[in-house]
Write a structure and sequence with these properties.
Elements (H helix, E strand, L loop, with lengths): L8 H5 L8 H12 L13 H20 L14 E5 L6 H4 L8 H11 L5 E5 L10 H8 L4 E4 L5 H7 L2 E4 L4 H7 L4 E3 L11 E2 L8 H11 L2 H18 L18 H18 L2
Parallel strand pairs: 1-2, 1-4, 2-3, 4-5, 5-6
Length: 276
């Protein structure tokens, strides 16, 4: 990862959420031919609702790009900056694991109040979320003092290497930062806390002094974490099981019988250990 800048496989799979997908056509066909099949399934929106949402997403994405909402990352760091990585919503990692810090805008506002004098905040949208948030949302972000809204397709690993500190609610970009030996904190407590500068930081209760100490600690994080990365990876492998859990629409092998058996076995083993 350090040498090649490899991204997680699911990142590439969902790079453009508004591209036409075959299962959309399958959904439409089922809705037309079997209109009452899902009438008691409240997790399945109507065809009209799904079409409306997808068209709205396409429209918001086009407006965001054409209105010059985002800016390229400055080539030189005239001022030190904190990098905040927005996450796609709704999404369980934010809305469940990240609870009660689910309002990313308010979290960013709280963090800006804590920034040391002379620092900026660079906020980068998730490429897979373009179209989810309205142009008005981005305008409100850009009104915050000292904030730059960075191009979603800027090189994240390059930004991680330049940032004085990387922050997200619960995003695995902070895991990547930690593996690269860069200082990162999450707002929620995460399973990769062993390589974070702070695992669970409440910006609504912290003082400027609290945050200043974190920024000060961030300056020496590379050397301090050198051994912790290997320890974390060993721990992570020890907690892992064979099997792939993902979206079967994009990764069909998820529902292969062999993978289903692996996931079922892992689930039973986990429950047995949990009950001891």
């Amino acid at each position: 990862m350090r040498e090649r800048g490899e991204r997680p496989y699911y990142f590439a799979l969902n790079m453009n959420q508004n591209r036409l997908r075959k299962y959309w056509l399958d959904e439409a066909w089922q809705a037309v031919m079997r209109p009452f099949a899902a009438r008691f399934d409240h997790t399945m929106p109507s065809l009209h609702t799904r079409v409306g949402r997808r068209l709205a997403s396409v429209r918001s994405g086009i407006l965001a790009r054409r209105s010059k909402t985002f800016e390229a990352a400055p080539a030189a760091d005239d001022r030190p900056f904190v990098l905040f990585l927005l996450q796609k919503q709704p999404e369980s990692s934010v809305d469940v694991i990240g609870s009660p810090f689910t309002n990313q805008y308010e979290v960013i506002r709280a963090l800006i109040r804590l920034l040391p004098i002379g620092w900026e905040m660079w906020v980068k949208e998730h490429p897979n979320a373009i179209g989810d948030r309205s142009p008005g949302y981005y305008r409100e972000l850009k009104r915050l003092p000292g904030l730059r809204l960075i191009d979603p397709f800027a090189d994240t690993h390059g930004l991680l290497s330049r940032a004085g500190l990387t922050i997200s609610i619960s995003g695995t970009a902070c895991l990547e930062a930690g593996l690269l030996g860069r200082p990162a904190i999450t707002i929620a407590e995460m399973y990769f806390g062993g390589i974070l500068l702070r695992n669970g930081f409440n910006p609504f209760q912290a003082t400027r002094g609290d945050f200043a100490r974190i920024v000060n600690d961030a300056a020496g994080v590379t050397a301090a974490q050198a051994g912790g990365i290997e320890e974390y990876l060993a721990w992570n492998v020890a907690q892992s099981f064979p099997g792939l859990i993902s979206d079967p629409a994009n990764v069909p092998s998820v529902i292969d019988q062999g993978n289903v058996n692996n996931v079922a076995d892992a689930t039973m083993m986990f429950l047995q250990r949990l009950s001891r």
